[in-house]
Specification:
Trna Endonuclease, Chain: A, domain 1, homodimer, alpha/beta, 4 helices, 8 strands, 36% helix, globular, two-stranded antiparallel ribbon, six-stranded mixed beta sheet
Chain lengths: 138, 138
């Protein structure tokens, strides 16, 4: 499936979960380049606790090797988190990955260690049902 | 220049600087995959302070966008550092980058912030002279 197919699936899953999409994509300008994060969304919290704001970087299941793909998504996550710290510090970044990827490659020893070490927040989605399966925040 | 041209240049620069190359590449096995780091080297320290051990991941200056390349190298660095923490914890990981890249793209606001935030150690090399210009350890 093409990248934008996964994009739409995650967007639908967030909307079904009660989120309002506020940017698609979410852009930031820096001195030498611009960054585009895939989605921004927000949701009003119960009991007057305000609004929860997230940014989501969406990954499908590409053709290159899983470890190469993992390095690319990990580097994006780290750099986008830096961008949010500088420009939009109350927004939590999530990496959206399909449940099949989470249940296989992401269970490996080193990937699990790196996710915890680097405090990577995951949104695990089911691309067939277009629903969110799990929010994992270390 | 092809990737292995930069590889040889950094290897020569390290040897000129008094390092002994101990692995080329340095491999680690994990449950679902193997990792190959570009180089391992060591050097005897003065005054009986033992041996300094490093691993070096070598980057040239590829054809894809610099920000995409930066994400790939950042993700590799983070995951390889995790691998060293688990399997070879006294070895310091360096990301080797050409001086031209360090003096331009790497000076941008967000890249500098991310390098400090993520404690990335850099080895800046001159690919023409095949010498090390700077060791940068945050």
């Amino acid at each position: 499936m093409a990248r934008d197919v996964f994009h739409d699936k995650v967007r639908h899953a967030l909307e079904s979960d009660g989120w309002t999409i506020t940017a698609d994509p979410l852009g930031f300008s820096f001195d030498l380049f611009n960054l585009m994060l895939d989605l921004a969304a927000e949701r009003v919290l119960a009991l007057e606790r305000g609004t929860e704001k997230i940014a989501v970087e969406i990954k499908g299941f590409g053709g290159i090797s899983k470890i190469t793909e993992f390095h690319a998504m990990l580097g994006q996550y780290e750099n986008y988190r830096s961008a949010l710290e500088l420009r939009d510090p109350t927004r939590q970044l999530y990496l959206a990955i399909p449940d099949m990827l989470y249940n296989t490659f992401f269970q490996s020893e080193l990937v699990q260690y790196t996710l915890k070490r680097n405090l990577i927040a995951l949104l695990v989605y089911d691309p067939d049902e277009e629903v969110i399966r799990e929010w994992i925040k270390p």
